[in-house]
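Work package 3, deliverable 3.1, input record:
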Amino acid sequence: MVAVNTAKKIIAEQCVQLPVVQVDLLNALNYALAEDIFSPIQFPAFRQSSMDGYAIYWEEKANPLFIQAAMPAGTEQPLLLQKGKAIQVFTGGPIPDGANCVVQKEWVTVNNSTIEIQLNNNIQLGDHIRNIGSDLQKNTLLLQKHTVIQPSHIALMASAGITTVKVLQKPSVGILITGNELVQPGNTLSFGKVYDSNAFTIQAHLKKVGITQMQVRYVSDNLQETENSIKELLLHHDIVIITGGVSAGDYDYVPQACINAGVQQHFHKVKQRPGKPLFFGTQKNKLVFGLPGNPAAVISCLYQYVIPAIDQICGTHTIQSTTAKVSTAFQKNIPLTQFLKGYLEGNTVKILPAQASYQLSALTNANCWIELEESDTQIESGTEKRVYLFL
Ligand SMILES: Nc1nc2c(c(=O)[nH]1)N[C@H]1C(S)=C(S)[C@@H](COP(=O)(O)OP(=O)(O)OC[C@H]3O[C@@H](n4cnc5c(N)ncnc54)[C@H](O)[C@@H]3O)O[C@H]1N2
Ligand code: MOO
């Protein structure tokens, strides 16, 4: 049986990044960049007006000015402003060559084809002109390699005309649900049966961290069938997650089936609760997690091991942790690291009732896991503990 931190270290050592893929800009959302991104253009690429109004020679602001032309946004033909004249310009549209300020239209009186500027003393040289490259210079570093792409980054890259980017690929995941007692939600429960929730738990968490390629298989408590299913999933996926059948019962075939399927075992059992019987192995660069069947054990192992491994493989940071003060005293009776369902508010965290690994009722209110260390015994109210925020 290994300690929690040892288990994390062993897993981290086995996580290998997948080949880089080039994806369309929108599909890059929540992926980590595999390259630095530089601006291919200067922005603005031409002198732009930031107001609807008139472009003039600042020196002529006190004179009546004849309207020479209009340059609406999208105009492709540059114009030279003639002396004694004004050209009508529009927000985001181009400014004629020669013009050195823009007067917003509210300050202008138009008489036939001539304008006069009111309060022209207030007009400054350069007013309302966005200069070329004033936001981005060509080859400016826009985003650093390994940045996890957010909607604001998509906005930035689209403005620079970028259509595709190279990102770290996300793993594809095979899920194997074991157990003769399982029934799919939607069917009647007969004696001795329980609804399969783990398949939903795992898929929901994976979806939340951006995994799109996943497949679920079911197998009864049978060594040969379990081995065959593991082999099959390993053929098509980078990660295999198995639930149930991993502890000491006569029908717990998962560790043996993994070994028979050519998986190298790195550890079996971690000094923690829930999730003590966790199995971890690899086949070449592929990771295999045997999670205990108890639903709360599945969730705690997802947060502590599976999702951090996915984060490491694809350069993301989906699991956030912080510290918070425990709001009430707690007696810890087991010499294991314990993960408790909690409710975090501000920097205080409440330990919720129903902490056994079969119990999910606390999930109605829980928003985090609280970690109590292996050596902890009596936890006094106000003690700072690490908490892992729910996705
Ligand atoms: N003699 C021992 N017994 C047990 C030990 C031990 O060390 N010695 N460890 C206990 C601990 S801790 C855990 S956790 C469980 C883990 O058991 P398994 O991984 O073998 O899982 P199962 O026995 O198949 O199932 C446990 C529990 O979870 C329910 N389950 C399973 N799959 C699902 C699913 N897809 N959806 C919902 N619920 C599921 C299952 O019905 C059982 O109630 O072992 C202890 N025993
Ligand atoms: O480790 Mo088990 O999940 O405590 O019941």
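The helical segments are 4-14, 151-159, 198-208, 223-236, 254-260, 295-314.
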